[in-house]
Amino acid sequence: MSDADQKITGFDLWYLSLPVVSARDHGIGRVNGTCEVVVLRLTSEGGETGWGEASPWVVFTGSPEATFAALDRYIRPLVLGRIVADREKIMLDADRAVAHCTEAKAALDTALLDLAGRISNQPVHALLGGKCRDTIPLSVSLANPDFAQDRALLDRLRQDGVRIVKLKTGFRDHAFDLMRLEALAQDYPEFAVRVDFNQGLPSKEALARVRDVATFRPDFIEQPVRAPHYELMAQIREAIDVPLLADESVFGPEDMSRAVREGICDGVSIKLMKSGGFSRAQAVAKMAASHGLGVYGGDMFEAGIAHLAGTHLIAATQAIDLGCEFYQARYYLAEDILETPFPCKDGHVQVPDAPGLGIRPDIDKLDHYSIARGRAA
Ligand SMILES: [Mg+2]
Question: Domain count of the chain?
Fold first, then answer.
């Protein structure tokens, strides 16, 4: 069978615990040892497969356990027996059936698109409206509590042609942040620097600390204060002449609309794991761009399937113009899960043109890192 009228007959899950190479500190939490993601495989009656990944972070979007249950218990019965081409209806049903759990819905949407692309012999970006770029500038985040290790990473990035880094700040004292910004300016001048507080600043200290950081003229400063503190975000934006980005404050189009109305940011970080699917992510991006805001391709602690999903989103969405941070597969996981490496060259992610997402996961690796399987497995 070759058309998208095929029914979905298989729904398989792998709950993975993936070792990482170092600790990472962010304003709102730490990652160390492993990160946990959920991989979904849909199978059509013709035997084609489509893959998706959910990459939650418990302090940001939600827990991997909730993600796994959302897919395994509540979304599975909505999907089995449905027509592959019914993607929009299936996504609406998933939205009604499970509140929140945006990562689970992102995985479902990705797998539906990958499956439709495999069946119709088209890349996912073609199904999202067509490709508007072939490469995406890659930003790698620096978040190691041991800055000597980040210096070693910077040397590797320099060799690899990466020219954008994002410094994670606000997890220790102000002097530590300023020391690292000085070091970047002095010793790594070829890198464009961005700064992300991940909500880490206490409200009373936020304005003064962000002002100091702004004197280093980073490309942008991201989410200095807690997600609901829109008023403070707007005050900080007024007080600095460096662009302020919203990340945790903006999950979907509803937040974006309020963010524009209240003037909290000059740009936004888009993530499929926040929006819960491609249509909502593209809606956020287009809304932001129509108000003159910059749009950045952010991510969570992801493996290669989620990176590929984000790559196709950005490839097909002109508004996402500030590059991406799909670095974990190459620079943070001890081993990624794809059959071939996530495609990066000279500091840019390369957009795949093969059908679907373009690369499949390696099932041996999924089995190796799996700590739970779904009901039908
Ligand atoms: Mg961020």
Answer: 2
